[in-house]
Design a protein that fits this description.
heterodimer, A: Rossmann fold, Rossmann fold, five-stranded parallel sheet, 12 helices, B: 307 residues, mainly alpha, Peripla_BP_I (chain A), transport (chain A), L-leucine-binding protein/L-isoleucine-binding protein/L-valine-binding protein (chain A), Leu_Ile_Val-bd (chain A)
């Protein structure tokens, strides 16, 4: 017993010493927090691959103010409880800057901790408006808001002159938020909303919902949420011969929906950030991803890349690694990034961000419709 | 007419899902009936059954086997074999060593097993949703051309028939076979059965194996019906099936069947006529109400001890 206590004590003191050594070296730690595992891990893959690439390239070009960036990665499983744990370990690890989180419902509770502890956060994917509504000083994003994405989807559906529209959401912050924005836009345009209903994320059986949609005889269904549920709804709707057009936000737009829904994913409409990887000025960067065997076309790859780049630019402009000074620099500057020119307003939102409607195909490709 | 069709459609949806709840619930109820513990790892056994079936189907497809009955039967046999051995092993490793101790100990051991199996599949198969190929497609349609059309898919028919066969076979087995009689004896009085020369360890193992095999059948059926599997898929289904078992009267096999069907229909009717958001509220309120007025469940026998 005594020896094991001794061993433990040695182990603890060694690790403390190692941690201290880590902090003493001239490095800037960048936390990357997002889902590495769990049902939406594929979005996490986009985030990690984008952020790692940015860190790699910045270091290859001499780092930031002569210091190297070091990625510290955390898995939040897109679970709010886990996100809080992750945020606390970031605090303990002495990280000053975070790229993350991904899911709005994780970003929100984690951002409370970051703001309190003086850590600057840039989320590359969370679109819930509430995140930047609280007057926080250290919260930024490199993506648009549901309140911008919802109207794009709503206006598109309204322009198709549908007779009846159903809106379904997964009762989570992201899904319900965007579904509400779509509903409000449609109402303003005078479109009849036949149904506005929540489902439980993680459910597998949507036969009752599909039957109800059939009964309501809707010609458009908007789904606010992520792909695991929408994939099943599409598949079960096809089996039940439901003849309606489906539409969803960027949370449903990834190739995993094809493995779940198969043929039923053909013709699904998705609002996504514009395909940054198609822009001429990003081709060199796209090639760098392809050389590593990674796919830069996911919606959050280049937003994550940009998040790291903005942190680096902010540090350089502020000539300091103090998160508050960097936040000040981000608010006052104009930055050229792979997702375009970025300027921030007081809340930490980009002054302009565009969403585009795409049609999804059963082979996982997409084509813009407007 | 329209309303009637809509009602029947929701009834069919409910009965389909309810009959698979019943298949899973059997595992909970049999184990409880015999050793008075709740096997919380049962939902994971069901999930493993679904994964095994998927692996078998993919394997056969890559070997070029295209004849549907062969694929289904091989997948079913693989799933039942793997799940049954898993059920047997779980009992040997996690429950037998702690049997006869305080009642909380096997319960905690069961929860630990459930977490272990879930995370094992997370590691081995990844945590993403994996699509399940739709092997049985098409169905019958009822109703006029432009109004609401009721559909009864071949998949739903398959689920009904398979469940019916499994349930009948199980009831016959329990009522007629030697092992079935021994099962009943053990469930009445384990100590006495032991004294009378029944190998109770073997009977308990058999219970776990039977429950796991039925869960594997449900895994294959539901995997095909829904179209995707993920490592957490057993947890929710297990919770629902456990509710069904309690609703029908835990320890009673006809009770598990009845409980499963009632729960399934209650869920689909709530989604159909109220809102999908209230699905779980209604089904669990139903459970609380039944337990308040009939604490042993619908078909349960009154017993002195309960967990």
């Amino acid at each position: 017993m005594r020896t094991s206590v001794k061993k433990l004590a040695t182990a603890v003191s060694t690790s403390v010493a190692l941690m201290a050594a880590g902090q003493a070296a001239a490095e800037i730690q960048i936390g990357i927090a997002g889902p590495m595992t769990g049902p939406v891990a594929q979005y996490g893959d986009m985030q990690f691959s984008g952020a790692r690439m940015a860190i790699e390239q910045i270091n290859a070009n001499g780092g930031v103010m002569g210091e190297e960036l070091v990625a510290v990665e955390y898995d939040d499983v897109c679970d709010p409880k886990q996100a809080v744990t992750v945020a606390n370990s970031l605090v303990n690890d002495g990280v000053g800057f975070v790229v993350g989180h991904l899911c709005s419902s994780s970003t929100q509770p984690a951002s409370d901790i970051y703001e309190d502890e003086g850590i600057l956060m840039v989320t590359p994917a969370s679109t819930s408006p509430e995140i930047t509504e609280r007057g926080y000083e250290l919260v930024f994003r490199t993506i648009g808001l549901d309140s911008m994405q919802g109207p794009v989807a709503g206006n598109y559906i309204a322009s198709q002159n549908p007779e009846r529209v159903a809106i379904v959401h997964d009762k989570q912050q992201y899904g319900e938020g965007i579904a509400t924005a779509v509903r409000d836009t449609l109402k303003d345009q005078g479109v009849e909303i036949a149904m506005f209903e929540g489902i439980t994320a993680g459910d597998k059986d949507f036969s009752s919902l599909v039957t109800k949609l059939k009964q309501a005889d809707v010609d458009y269904v908007y789904y606010g949420g992520y792909h695991p549920e929408l994939g099943l709804i599409l598949r079960q709707a096809r089996q039940a011969d439901l003849d309606a057009k489906f539409m969803g936000p960027e949370g449903v737009g990834n190739k995993d929906i094809n493995t779940i829904a198969g043929e039923a994913a053909e013709g699904l409409l998705v609002t996504l950030p514009p395909a940054f990887d198609q822009k001429a000025e990003n081709q060199e960067l796209v090639k760098a991803f392809q050389d590593k065997g990674e796919d830069p076309s996911g919606p959050f790859v280049l937003t994550s890349y940009t998040a790291v780049q903005l942190i680096a630019n902010g540090i350089e402009q502020a000539e300091s690694t103090d998160p508050f000074e960097v936040a000040q620099a981000l608010r006052s500057g104009t930055f050229q990034t792979p997702i375009g020119t970025v300027e921030y307003d007081e809340a930490g939102d980009m002054k302009s961000f565009e969403f585009v409607v795409y049609e999804w195909h059963s082979d996982g490709s997409k084509t813009p419709v407007n | 007419m329209q309303d009637l069709l809509y009602f029947s459609q929701q009834l069919i949806n409910g009965l389909t899902i309810g009959s698979t709840y019943a298949l899973i619930a059997i595992g909970y109820t049999m184990v409880y009936g015999i050793i008075g513990m709740i096997n919380f790892a049962h939902g994971e056994i069901y999930m493993i059954g679904a994964y095994t079936a998927l692996i078998a189907i993919t394997g056969l497809a890559s070997l070029g086997v295209a004849w549907l009955p062969v694929i289904l039967i091989v997948a079913l046999i693989c799933a039942m074999l793997v799940s049954s051995s898993m059920g047997w092993a779980v009992e040997r490793v996690a429950y037998r060593p702690v049997r006869g101790r305080h009642r909380l100990i096997p319960l905690i051991s069961a929860i630990g097993m459930s977490i272990f199996l879930q995370n094992y599949v997370h590691l081995a198969q990844g945590s993403r949703n994996i699509g399940f190929p739709a092997l049985i497609e098409g169905g019958f349609n009822f109703g006029s051309g432009d109004g609401f059309q009721m559909s009864l898919s071949y998949m739903q028919i398959t689920i009904f028939i398979t469940t019916l066969i499994c349930m009948t076979a199980l009831s016959l087995f329990i009522a007629r076979s030697r092992t079935g009689r021994a099962c009943r004896a053990v469930s009445q009085d384990l100590g006495m059965a032991n004294l009378l020369g029944i190998d109770t360890n073997r009977i308990i193992s058999a219970t776990f194996v039977i429950g796991a095999a039925l869960a594997a059948v449900a895994g294959l059926l539901l995997g095909m019906y829904y179209g995707s599997v993920d490592p957490l898929f057993g947890f929710i289904a297990g919770l629902k099936a456990f509710t069904a078992a309690v609703l029908g009267g835990i320890g009673s096999i006809p009770g598990a069947m009845l409980g499963g069907l009632i729960l399934g229909v209650a869920e689909s009717m709530t989604s159909g006529y109220l809102s999908g958001e209230y699905k779980d509220v209604i089904s669990f309120s139903l459970l609380i109400l039944i337990l308040l007025f009939k604490p042993t469940g619908l078909l349960g026998k009154p017993e002195v001890e309960k967990i």
